[in-house]
Write a structure and sequence with these properties.
With about 500 residues, the protein is mainly alpha-helical. The chain is built from 18 helices and five strands.
């Protein structure tokens, strides 16, 4: 017999006669009060939900939501050529889709970071998912004469998705610690490449199956509403910092104090700049590589320019599959390498990120060297380059968890997201398209020159990646000092206010 804390009996909870409450076990000899009334159906349902709210289940649900978050984001990239032909826009015009999405995403992120540190996080997550799902579905019905409205819809989707990216990692951070947290964050951030790859696959497959690219935007909303419902019912709201210390945080600092502290946190600043370099490259690659490879095949005479209503999706499907596999390998290898290197040096996290970034730049450079002659060779370089680039996603989040105290992590993640998007993928898709358009205007338009101009524009990416590697090396210089400061401040915040003065560094 199990007794709920609201004064009702629930049968079948345990095979023994032990009495349990929501806060823990009680004496086996304690019996149920005969005056207690039988549980109502709604109370039984609530009790069943509470049993399902385990940390592992929560991490799984949040990871599933993150997959959908990125799947929706890159579904558009999977049908990019069809959208370009349907709305009759240039490279820079089509690049504007991602730029508007990211701009709205990064502007909304600090707002959700503030809300996530102060209000119920799972409610915010659910509302965000419901919002972007409805907007994505609605955008599939926009006519070809209203391209500006289609662009605006992507901006609204960015607002909805920013709530998820800013807040959900903090729930995982409050449920796990140390290597367990690294593992769960690795699973969570595995959703980025996995969801991105599935976005290409879903968009291409739905388009081919329905014979209309609009259907690419009508599938992910169904999954999104499902994920929002799961979060609403099965994800708990843990106390902030509950996994980091034994005592409770007695008080919190102001938002202005939080921002001053983050600005002085050198590891946080440099790792955020490094994340910007990663975002710049992944944003540009995710938008343009399938189109670049399609143009390469035209140059090699192994493919033809699209003149049909539904264009070939082979390159999007292959690129999506590669992104899924490299994302899995990158996150797993990154987590394993970091755990191994921590036995040798406490600066392992930023050092692994730096080495992987520098190695990635080499293979990404090779893509544009071999693509003109060999599509297979280009895919091999993409595979290795992406694997190395994806190594640092989960590790970067773990660095933040080490050097930022729990009560300001949502704010820290939100502003890191803001910075990485502002300096990264907010402008990179449009910038690459703009450079490509300018280069095409310099010479007579031809299939060869359209291919080369886009390749020359994309060559900017490896240089940005090298710069990101340098920022991770700078992070390694200050990582230990900033981690020690965060641990010291957290210990101070668990004491009564009368015993300690809170510092802001």
């Amino acid at each position: 017999m199990c007794v709920e804390s609201d004064g009702c009996d629930i049968e079948g909870c345990s095979s023994s006669d032990e009495v349990r409450t929501l806060s823990g076990s009680m004496s086996p000899t304690l019996k149920s009060n005969p005056d207690r009334h039988p549980c109502k159906p709604g109370q039984k349902f609530r009790a069943a939900l509470l049993k399902c709210r385990s940390p592992a289940a929560t991490a799984g649900i949040l990871s599933f939501g993150n997959v959908l978050n990125y799947m929706d984001r890159y579904t558009v990239a999977g049908v990019l050529l069809d959208i370009q032909r349907h709305y009759k826009v240039t490279d820079s015009g089509i690049g504007l889709l991602q730029t508007v999405f990211i701009c709205s995403f990064m502007v909304a992120a600090p707002i959700f970071g503030y809300l996530g540190d102060r209000f119920n996080r799972k409610i915010i997550l659910s509302c965000g998912i419901f919002f972007w799902s409805i907007v994505t579905l609605s955008s599939s019905f926009i006519g070809k004469e209203y391209y500006w409205l289609f662009v605006l819809s992507r901006g609204l989707v960015g607002i909805g998705e920013s709530s998820y990216s800013s807040i959900s990692p903090t729930i995982i951070g409050d449920l796990f610690t140390n290597n367990s947290r690294t593992m769960m964050l690795s699973v969570f951030y595995l959703a980025i490449p996995l969801g991105s790859g599935l976005g290409y696959i879903l968009g291409s497959s739905a388009k081919v199956a329905a014979g209309d690219w609009h259907w690419a935007l009508r599938v992910s909303p169904i999954f999104g509403i499902t994920a929002g419902t799961l979060i609403l019912f099965f994800v708990p709201e843990p106390k902030r910092g509950s996994a980091d210390q034994m005592g409770r945080v007695q008080y919190r600092t102001s938002w202005l104090c939080d921002m001053k502290s983050l600005a002085k946190n050198r590891s946080y600043v440099f790792s955020s700049l490094a994340s910007s370099a990663v975002s710049f490259a992944t944003g540009a690659f995710g938008m343009w590589i399938p189109l670049y490879l399609a143009r390469a095949q035209v140059v090699q005479k192994t493919g033809e320019e699209c003149t049909k209503e539904v264009c070939s999706s082979t390159d999007s499907l292959i690129f999506g599959a590669i992104t899924c596999v490299t994302g899995l390998l990158g996150v797993v290898i990154g987590a394993a390498t970091t755990r191994l290197c921590r036995q040798k040096t406490e600066r392992a996290d930023p050092l692994v990120c730096a080495v992987s970034m520098l190695g990635s730049a080499i293979f990404i450079c090779l893509i544009f060297v071999v693509a003109k002659k060999s599509i297979v060779g280009a895919y091999v370089c993409i595979f290795i380059g992406e694997t190395l680039l994806f190594l640092n996603w989960a590790i970067t989040a773990d660095i933040l968890m080490f050097v930022v105290i729990p009560t300001r992590r949502a704010t820290a993640i939100a502003f890191q997201s803001f910075t990485s998007h502002l300096l990264g993928d907010a402008g990179s898709p449009y910038l690459i398209g703009l450079i490509s358009d300018d280069l095409q205007q310099s010479y007579a338009t031809s299939a060869l020159w359209r291919f080369l101009s886009l390749g020359y524009a994309l060559m900017l990416c490896p240089f940005i990646i090298v710069l990101g590697g340098m920022f991770f090396l700078a992070t390694a210089l200050f990582f230990l000092d900033d981690r020690e400061k965060a641990e010291k401040q957290l210990s101070q915040m668990t004491r009564p206010p009368s015993l300690v003065k809170v510092t802001t560094t």
